[in-house]
Amino acid sequence: MTVAVTGATGKLGRLAIARLKTLLPATEIVALARSPEKAADLGVEARAFDYDRPETLAAALQGVERLLLISSSEVGKRAAQHRAVIEAAKAAGVGQIVYTSLLHADRSPLSLAGEHVATEAMLAESGLPHAILRNGWYAENYTGAIPAALAHGALIGAAGAGRISAAARADYAEAAALVLAGEGHAGKTYELAGDEGWTLAELAAELSAQTGRQIPYDDLSQADYAAALAGAGLPEELAAAIASWDVGASQGALFDDGRALSRLIGRPTATLAEVVRAAL
């Protein structure tokens, strides 16, 4: 069985391929990347795969039986890019697609949801067997702010007391690999999230405990948080989007207690203490 992974040189793609190599021979794994030379260290076949060159995609998928479609990182272009991949997969005779969507995409208030819902609809319309992995937030989305929190003496956000069921990126990658290489997943949609939800105040408390410093959580308004992110150098549009996602988290958009992720991977997801320790 030959499987392929899009976005193979990204953080999730690299982890998924590493886990796939424990499940399948490396000769049965294909890394698909816009710059295949960047995949040379993965130890598997690498093929050029550019979402924005749809006429080249079917050829790159020849011989692939199962495809892990990791959602594009280009918000606003995702729907068109994903359509090109799905159409190419159908033309190339791919037997099954596994797609990384968004937690509770069908009812999520997050601005990211629309393109994921559109892609899920495309998959349904394609007639191809497929599985949907609705991934919750990566813990790294928040632990990435730890250096700034340590530098400024506070963790900032706009998530209020919203509980965030984040999991380590490696947990999601393992689930993707297991579903891609496993049996019985076609037609299923999995809501994937960490076992235990936590607030940003609890993240700040854990950071304080592990560093021996007092790092409080400073809850800002959406506008003030967006302004702070822009002031730190993020593009204004991205800063505004991140702030809006935090507000969504305050409304429960990133919480799930179904534990489908830990059931898929056969172990508990990484704890808050573990992800903070890894980040430090």
Termini separation (Å)? 39 Å
Structural class: alpha/beta
The rough form would be described as globular
Note the main sheet.
7 strands, parallel
Number of structurally distinct domains:
2
User: Which CATH architecture of the largest domain is right?
Assistant: 3-Layer(aba) Sandwich
User: Which fold name corresponds to the CATH topology of the largest domain?
Assistant: Rossmann fold
What percentage of amino acids are in beta strands?
5-15%
Strand order of the largest sheet: 3-2-1-4-5-6-8
The CATH class name of the largest domain reads Alpha Beta
Which percent range fits the helix content?
A: 40-55%
Number of helices: 12
What Rg is obtained from the alpha carbons, in whole angstroms? 19 Å
N-to-C SSE string, H for helix and E for strand: EHEEHEHEHEHHEHEHEHHHH
Mean pLDDT: 96
Spans of at least 5 consecutive residues with low confidence: none
Strands, count: 9
CATH superfamily of the largest domain: NAD(P)-binding Rossmann-like Domain
